[in-house]
Amino acid sequence: MTDEVFDTVTDGSPAASLGFWRLPAGFEELLARWSAAGPVAYVEAEYFGGVGEQHAAVWAHGGVVLGPLHVEEGQAFGSAGSPISQALRRLGVVADAATDEFATVGLDRHRSSEGWIA
Prior knowledge:
The protein is of the alpha+beta class. The chain is 27% helix and 24% strand. It has a three-stranded antiparallel beta sheet with strand order 1-2-3. A hairpin with a 2-residue loop joins strand 2 and strand 3. The protein is globular. The mean pLDDT is 87.
């Protein structure tokens, strides 16, 4: 979520209480509307030096159907895997035994928003 996208999609309403760092105010309503056509996920990851946090939620049929899930710094992933992997599974991603859903869809290719934009 770049600053430019954040500024474009925020609607000025009070921020949602879903626990995300950068979920723009009102964006959850847009995600809910989009989910009428199929499930959508909003995920956040913040890591530095291998330490960090993940947040994820999935919307389908106009409402939240998974999450919000949070794994804070220093907290181990549960048996279901990371919040992002759980969200990707809910979207239909199937990982093989050698990797997780995050790597299966290529989210490990870049380490920053700038890398994705380039």
